[in-house]
Amino acid sequence: MNVSLLDYGAGNLPSVERALQRLGVQSERVSTSAGVAKASALILPGVGHYGALIRALDRDELRESLIAAIEGGVPFMGICLGLQALFQNSEEAPDLRGLQILPGSVRVMSGAVKLPHMGWDQVQLKGESRLLEGVDSEAYFYFAHSYAASYKADEQMETRATCWYGDEFVAVTETKNIFAVQFHPEKSGDAGQRVLKNFLRIAA
Amino acid sequence: MSLAHRIIPCLDTDGERVVKGVNFVALRDAGDPVALARRYNAEGADELVVLDIAASRDRRPTFLETIRKVAAELAIPLTAGGGIRTLDDARAVVRAGADKVTVNTAAVLLPGLISELSEEFGSQAVVLAIDAKRDGDCWHVMTTGGRVATDLEAISWATRGAELGAGEILLTSVDRDGTQSGFDVALTAAISKQVMVPVIASGGARWPQHFAAIFREGAADAALAASIFHDGIQSIRSLKEFLASEKIQVRLPC
After folding, report:
1. Fold designation for B6-245
2. Distance in Å from the first CA to the final CA of chain A
């Protein structure tokens, strides 16, 4: 199978490529709306500033094609900022619109905690997760972020796992063909490899 | 459930080979950064740091090639640094495969560099390395590999660095580095409790109890060591098992 990685200049794109290579999967970078339209499976990696991602999507006129692909049923996986982009908006860049595919907002993480939320943390299942299938419930994943999608149980049936850091936030979300994780599977050892493998299996 | 305390091996290289703290006792190929990276990735290291301690301009391409090869081995985050003076230096290191960049001397000389890096890569990718040496009642910042003293006081420099956009502090005790007499608990606690970004403690590690103390009393978020891991004096897995038995949260099994 062939996976397309949306290339808007994200720092973690090569890491995702290497992780896919380890799983024996070739990926290609796409950076145009024509490329997105042709993709049979899409990964949106991302790390850094929310505004940089959203502005790049709009600058390169990728927003429409990305939404069309996702709504058209193309298997999609968002990583870190790639998860945050699916929501309505973010406090990190309040004047910008998210892809607005999922309900809810991205907020700065609050509470008496150090930011960024950086390092290995565990997640709590909120429903049956296809991405986390076969992953030990005690497994740790690597997080590196200061903003997160707030978890509201009654409004977010798509949430499959949450994490606690000052407050509860969305760690894994899944609905139909749309999958996203706040942690970095490409940097999360064997547990992360398993998550990527699960997505590839779903997408195949 | 909370964030695991991280164990981070550090490879000090001359750009190409691991040069510091290697006695070549237990391992035939302890000087090869790629072989070490592979081993630490498998043993349960939570991250890896690779530094170019020579940091000479003409050896830069070699160091970038080392980062490329090391990154290919890792399913964990990689931090690289040593001699990062400009945004372009940092870009090269990130393009080669590093997830985070450390800055030290150049940030002291030009604090705006921290903001530049943070704006480009996000604060989670910017590690401010501080070499601190005790001076009476406080600690002063040293530069140039711990050799040149500055007037900067370590706690206020760490606070300023975080304000400028550093997402993490890599704090090395110049007094303890290489002594194997334990981490500097007082220094680490002073900074970790003051600064609202994670702190990686470095310098002086020898025994598992040193790690327990730096997490418990030193309030460190992560602990870094080099020679005890390279020389096979301490395995990462057994260190983590010890810490877990002490009820200190670590990532196990890894």
Report:
1. TIM Barrel (3.20.20)
2. 6
pTM: 0.95
Q: Collect all residues of chain A within an 8 Å Cβ-Cβ radius of residue B34.
A: none
For chain B, which residues make up each domain, given as ranges?
Answer: 6-245
Domain span at A70: 3-203
Least CA distance to A162: which residue of chain B? Answer: B1
ipTM score of complex: 0.93
B110-149 pLDDT, tens per residue?
Answer: 999 999 999 989 999 999 999 999 999 999 999 988 889 9
Mutation target among A92, A114, A167, A168 for the B interface, most CBs of B within 10 A:
A114
The answer to whether the Cβ–Cβ distance between B198 and A119 falls below 8 Å is yes
